[in-house]
Design brief:
Structural class: mainly alpha
Order of helices and strands: HHHHHHHH
Helix content: over 70%
Number of helices: 8
Largest sheet: none
Distance between the termini: 32 Å
Low-confidence stretches: none
Strand content: under 5%
Mean pLDDT: 79
């Protein structure tokens, strides 16, 4: 009986991993992952990098805010990743990292609380690819993922 239960859990885990790969294909298959706020995040990161490089024209118009607002975290991630990757790829990597941090944190919480809940193992990837992620609420979703990570740890 225990052997059949483990096979069932493994089957649900394989289904869940297949769903994760399907979501990653949805994120990375198109040239751009279009969101409502994605362009603003990329613009702010580009503007921030030009301000850091002492652009005289932009320094006369804009200045770096010494008070750190909550949405600076994803702007800084965009700034760092855009030096290595294209802005489109950096946006996708941030969305994928938010997805994975939240996914593994919730899986860890489920395992520590309930054990191997088969339905939750399958539902977590589906529920994480949600409206807030699709409209570009990266800062909020990053906060949610870090909250789940802190609960898990």
């Amino acid at each position: 009986m225990i052997l059949n239960s483990n096979k069932s859990i493994n089957r649900h885990l394989y289904i869940s991993i297949a769903l994760v790969f399907l979501i990653l294909i949805l994120i990375f298959s198109n040239p751009y992952f279009v969101t409502c706020d994605g362009a603003a995040h990329l613009y702010n990161a580009n503007l921030f990098s030009k301000l850091l490089s002492n652009n005289d024209f932009l320094s006369g118009i804009y200045s770096i805010n010494p008070i750190i607002p909550p949405n600076y975290l994803t702007t800084l991630f965009h700034l760092i990743l855009s030096t290595i990757f294209t802005p489109s790829i950096s946006e996708k990597l941030i969305i994928a990292s938010i997805f994975f941090i939240t996914l593994f944190s919730i899986w860890g919480i489920i395992k520590s609380i309930k054990g191997n809940n088969r339905l939750a193992i399958i539902l977590v990837p589906i529920l994480l690819f949600n409206y807030l992620l699709a409209i570009g609420m990266n800062n909020f979703m990053l906060g949610v993922s870090l909250m789940f990570l802190s609960i898990y740890l």
